[in-house]
Write a structure and sequence with these properties.
The chain is of the alpha+beta class and 530 residues long. 77% of the residues lie in helices and 7% in strands. It contains 9 helices and 5 strands; from the N terminus they run H-H-H-E-E-H-E-E-E-H-H-H-H-H. It has a 5-stranded antiparallel β-sheet. Helix 5 packs parallel to helix 6. The protein is rod-shaped, with a radius of gyration of 65 Å.
């Protein structure tokens, strides 16, 4: 048999109750309680008259038995003489005449004839033959008393009899018991309308108590329903808001019941959402600040680099132009070397000095590019800060996942928070990776710029060495004599032409490499600002 078959109708009922709202469940409980109270009250009303009548009958029987015990005492004290028996009987009747219970209830005595021996309420009936006495229904009540005692020894008889002080007969139930030694019938009774009045009063009491219990029960159900449904509505609305990402939600007040524990879990969820939003805002602000700092640093470095490189390039171009001009002058004046060796030496020294200054300017540019590389390293430090923020965000996602597991079904909104925190962590990680890639590109560009500047500095130093050789050669020319001087001059002219060609070629190469360096510097500056 399937599990559904084992569940049966009881399982279906439980399943149906699960689909009811809380107010419907409480209303059902209240209805069952009211029906139970009504059923108990109905049972009490149904058994009220029989129970009360049985109690009154027992009281009546007990009174008659007590009166019989009193008479039995007198019977035992009486001597077996007519005079003493009459005296004991008179004493017994006097004792019973003053006996009262329940206010005006009394005991009477008649004999088996029947003749009234003692009636405390109607003494005019004493000594009267009661055989012909009947009630309004024609019942010979005293004859019935005698017959009951004669056949049963004791018992109950129902008839009509007026209450003390009244003439209208009402239903009465009397209990009679015989005294065999003297042939007496002792009896007392209860008026059934008194029983009915007591039953009516008790019924109204039961109805009043039942109504009061129902009012209290319905009031209690109303209060319990309100104390449960209102917090549940507020909690449901708060959880919907938290699931939608709204942290500004109202939660029910704290309590120690199950709703209070749900509220505590919802409060943890709300605090986690607030922490997530706060961390997100802080992370966003940190990223904006880092981007602004990186942009300001890059702009400052770019501006400084442009200014330094432009100045150096202008000085290098000036030195190169001067060197090229000196080379041209050296080449053009080679034919006039005989008359102007000293002037050529001066120009060669000037070219050497220009090459030296150009090499120094190239070293300055190399130092500037090195400073740019150090700034790129500092930007890498900012990337590390962003990665730390991403790590903290991952920790928050882990905490949110744990809290969602603790909250159970109430933690569904908590899982949403964990997912959003994880998304935030991934965004931060991707942003830090992009920044790290840009920093690596900046470092590669600065390395390339430094290499180019080093190469330019080497070229400029080579030019300086070449012009120094020219100057030394010219100094040797001054020491020559006569024909030897002419031959030396011609040889030096040829050498100077070769040097001039080399200087011109080096100057052109330097100009090309300078242009390339400027282009690389412009690209590096644009990359830093981006």
């Amino acid at each position: 048999m399937s599990s559904w078959g084992h569940i049966g109708n009881g399982g279906l009922a439980v399943h149906g109750l699960r689909n009811l709202s809380m107010i419907a469940k409480l209303t059902a409980v209240a209805a069952v309680a009211v029906l139970a109270v009504v059923a108990v009250a109905w049972a009490q009303l149904a058994s009220l008259r029989p129970d009360l009548l049985a109690t009154r009958e027992k009281t009546t029987r007990d009174i008659v038995q007590a009166a019989s015990s009193i008479v039995a005492g007198y019977v035992q004290r009486a001597e077996p003489t007519p005079a003493d028996t009459a005296r004991q009987q008179a004493a017994a009747l006097a004792a019973l005449k003053d006996l009262r219970y329940d206010g005006q209830q009394y005991v009477w005595v008649n004999d088996m004839n029947p003749t009234m021996l003692m009636h405390p309420i109607k003494p005019d009936m004493d000594g009267t033959d009661l055989a012909a006495t009947t009630d309004s229904n024609g019942t010979h009540l005293f004859v019935e008393f005698v017959n009951t005692v004669r056949t049963q020894g004791s018992g109950f008889v129902t008839y009509l009899w007026p209450k003390p002080g009244a003439d209208q007969p009402v239903p009465k139930l009397s209990y009679v018991q015989g005294v065999p030694a003297w042939g007496w019938v002792i009896g007392t009774g209860l008026y059934l309308d008194d029983v009915d009045a007591a039953v009516s009063a008790a019924q109204w009491g039961i109805i009043g108590r039942t109504a009061l219990i129902m009012i209290l029960l319905l009031g209690l159900v109303f209060l319990v329903s309100r104390s449960v449904t209102r917090p549940l509505r507020v909690l449901t609305s708060a959880l919907d808001g938290l699931a939608a990402g709204n942290e500004d939600v109202e939660l029910p007040p704290d309590s120690k019941d199950e709703i209070g524990r749900c509220v505590a879990s919802a409060r943890v969820l709300r605090d986690g959402l607030i922490a997530q939003h706060t961390l997100g805002r802080e992370n966003e602000a940190l990223q904006v600040q880092a981007a602004a700092d990186r942009r300001r640093t890059a702009e400052a470095l770019s501006l400084r680099l442009r200014e330094t490189v432009d100045g150096a390039m202008e000085r290098i171009h000036a030195r190169v132009d001067s060197l090229a001009g000196a080379s041209d002058d050296l080449a053009g004046g080679a034919d006039r070397l005989v008359g102007s060796v000293a002037a050529i030496g001066d120009q060669a020294a000037e070219a050497t000095d220009a090459a030296t200054r150009a090499a120094g300017d190239a070293d300055v540019v190399v130092d500037t590019v090195a400073g740019l590389s150090a700034a790129a390293d500092r930007i890498g430090g900012v990337v590390d800060v962003i990665r730390k923020v991403a790590f903290q965000t991952n920790l928050l996602a882990l905490n949110a996942t744990i809290e969602a597991a603790r909250a159970g079904s109430a933690g569904k909104g908590f899982a949403v928070v964990a997912h959003e925190v994880q998304e935030l962590s991934q965004q931060s990680s991707r942003a830090s990776d992009r920044i790290a890639g840009q920093v690596r590109e900046i470092q590669d560009s600065t390395g390339a710029a430094a290499t180019a500047l080093t190469r330019i500095a080497g070229t400029v130093r080579g030019l300086g060495q070449a012009t120094s050789s020219v100057s030394a050669s010219l100094d040797g020319t001054h020491a020559a004599t006569g024909t030897t001087r002419d031959v030396g001059v011609r040889a030096e002219v040829s050498a100077n032409r070769l040097v001039a060609d080399r200087v011109s070629t080096a100057a052109n190469q330097l100009a090309v490499e300078t242009g390339q360096l400027r282009q690389e510097v412009e690209e590096l500056a644009a990359e830093l600002v981006r």
